[in-house]
Amino acid sequence: MLLNRFIGVVLTVAAGLAGATPAPAAKPRLYLTTELSAPSSMLDGGRVAGIATDKVREAMQRAGVDYTIAILPWKRAYNAALQRRDACVYSTTRTPEREALFKWVGPTDIAQWVLMGRADRRLQLRSLEDARGLRIGTYNGDARDAYLRTRGFTVDATSNDLANPEKLLLGRIDLWAASMRSGSTVLARLGYDKQVVPLLVFNETGVYLACNRGVPDEVVARLNAAFDGIARDGTGRRIERGYENWVPPAPRP
C-alpha cells in the first residue's frame, strides 16, 4: 500500500515537471566601455550619448542584448574589454595586431587619420614621409600612436587627445595625429578651425565595437546583423544627421 502511494507521488511530480513551462532564457548582458571623444561618445546630462553610442544602443536593442556603458580613460576602457569576458569597447580601430584579441562588431563608423598643423606655419605635407623628424602629438594606447611608433616617427603621447591642439598652438609639438569623421566640424565647434588646419589624410579605417573573446559567437552574430540593418535602412545616417549641429558646451569659468 505504501509502495503504491509512493509510486503515485513520484508519477505525479514527474508529470508536473514534464508539463511545466520552461523558464525563459536570461537575456545576454554586456559591459560596454568607451572614452570621451565627442561627437562619437560624450556625456549629455549625465547620460552617455554621441554618434557611435547611439548606433551601439540601437544595435543592442535590435539584438535583444542588455548592457551598461561606462566612460573611462581609453587605456582602461580598452583593457576592460581585454580582461572581462562580458565586455566590449568602442570605437576601436581594427588593426592586424588587434585582430585576434577581440571579436569584432560593426563598423560603428569610418574614420580618417589626419595630420593637423598650425595654420601660421604653412607646413606642406605631400606624404607621411614628409612628417619624418617632426614631433607628432598622439595619445596613450591609441592605434595612431602605435602606427606611427612602429614606423619610426617621433611621437609625443598624452593621456587626453584634446590636449594636443593646445600643445600644437604652444609649439610643444609640430603636428597632431587626429582621427576625424569625413566632413567633421569638430575643430570649428572647439574654436580651433582658424588656428589648426588639416595637412594630410594618411589613413582611412573602420572603427568597431571590440568584444572580449568570451562573448558568445551567437551574441556577436546578432549584433553584427543589427549593425548591417542600421546601415541598410538609413538609421545610421539619421543618427549622424542628428549631431550635425551639435555644439560642445562652453567650458566652466
UniProtKB/TrEMBL annotation:
Gene3D superfamilies: Periplasmic binding protein-like II. Residues 1-25 form the signal peptide. Keywords: Signal. Coiled coil: none annotated. Residues 37-243 form the Solute-binding protein family 3/N-terminal domain. It comes from the Bacteria. PANTHER family: PERIPLASMIC SUBSTRATE BINDING PROTEIN FAMILY 3, SOLUTE-BINDING PROTEIN FAMILY 3_N-TERMINAL DOMAIN-CONTAINING PROTEIN. This is Substrate-binding periplasmic protein.
